[in-house]
From TrEMBL:
Lineage of source species: Bacteria, Pseudomonadati, Pseudomonadota, Betaproteobacteria, Burkholderiales
Annotated family: Belongs to the UPF0065 (bug) family.
Protein name: Tripartite tricarboxylate transporter family receptor
SUPFAM superfamilies reported for this sequence: Periplasmic binding protein-like II
Signal recorded as keyword: yes
Signal peptide extent: 1-23
Organism the protein comes from: Variovorax paradoxus
Keywords, sorted A to Z: Receptor, Signal
Length: 324
């Protein structure tokens, strides 16, 4: 073989080798990972993200950053992550309100079913029906009786139309045959402030956020919305066991990635979240806050989202609720 032919053959081999090397997937993570949170610091999504952050960082061997991008009920953060490169370096922590985005925001710039993919739910907790202490009823049954005796006489707070506390209250009204006036607020802070001040009498509040106020006597817990009681509210009955079987609503925090993120990356993330939530110290911290670790599969999380979307869409349709 002549030298020119050999050189050409060698060059061709080197070219093929270069293509093969380039075709190999990059090791993940190759740079810092962002956990984008669509809410301000201090809320349940931010709290869970910051508890998860050091465990993911240690497991992945890369810096993990919690990046708060609040606004428009979390949809601004979701839109940003939907546009991000699907390489596993930009992730989204969401609240249960994610399931109602198509109902509340019909002109979203992204498609929740196509532009973001489920990784795993991280944790869940029930909502707690809390009332201002000025309300005379001391337990759930008496409270329902009070509502029936005074239809429209009491008000309930929500963090806005289509939020979990709005839809849960409407669900409760439907099954109990009561009427309470909805007072929507622009966020949890103002809603809780007026609830504590007595300007509104009741709210279905996340167990995590209600706990310090209940413990301090600033609010009274009458019922919780999960299928079973959680340890943090062991003395508080569920709505289901108080005469409304089948009533179940859970607030949850989940992890999403841009659509097209490699399945190997998604599976690794889900596995690392599972390791974290089964760690005894992490489990104990969750229990203290009224949370339960989940870490289900992407398929299971997707099924939860479909079920939630169908349930709330049916409620909105049947109750003719305004979500504006």
């Amino acid at each position: 073989m002549s030298f020119p032919i050999l050189s050409r053959a060698l060059a061709a081999c080197m070219l093929l080798l270069g293509v093969a090397v380039q075709a190999q997937p990059q090791a993940w993570p190759a740079k810092p990972v962002r956990l984008v949170v669509g809410f301000p610091p201090g809320g349940i999504v931010d709290t869970v993200a910051r508890q998860l952050q050091p465990r993911l960082q240690a497991a992945l061997g890369q810096t993990v950053i919690v990046d708060n991008r609040s606004g428009a009920g979390g949809t601004l953060a979701a839109a940003e992550v939907a546009r991000a490169a699907p390489d596993g370096h930009t992730l989204l922590m969401v609240f249960d309100s994610y399931a109602t985005y198509p109902l509340v925001y019909p002109k979203l710039s992204f498609d929740t079913a196509k532009d973001l993919q489920p990784v795993t739910q991280v944790a869940s907790n029930p909502l707690v029906l809390v009332v201002n202490p000025k309300v005379q009823a001391k337990d759930f049954q008496r409270f329902v009786g009070l509502l029936k005796a005074q239809p429209g006489g009491l008000n309930y707070a929500s963090v806005g139309p289509g939020s979990s506390n709005h839809l849960t209250a409407e669900y409760f009204k439907a099954v109990s045959g009561t009427f309470v006036t909805h007072i929507p607020y622009r966020g949890g802070g103002p809603a809780q402030q007026d609830l504590l001040g007595g300007q509104v009498e009741m709210m279905f509040l996340s167990a995590v956020l209600a706990q310090p106020h209940v413990n301090a006597g600033r609010l009274r817990a009458l019922a919780q919305t999960g299928a079973q009681r959680v340890a943090a509210y062991a003395e508080v009955p569920t709505v289901a066991e108080s005469g409304y079987p089948g009533f179940e609503v859970n607030s949850w925090v989940g992890l999403l990635a841009p659509a097209g993120t490699p399945r190997a990356v998604v599976d690794r993330l889900q596995a690392e979240v599972r390791k974290a939530v089964t760690e005894p110290a992490f489990q104990q911290r969750l229990r203290e806050q009224g949370l339960t670790g989940i870490a289900n599969t992407p398929e299971q999380f997707a099924a939860v989202l479909r079920t939630e979307q169908d349930k709330w869409a049916r409620l909105v349709r049947e109750r003719r609720l305004s979500l504006e």
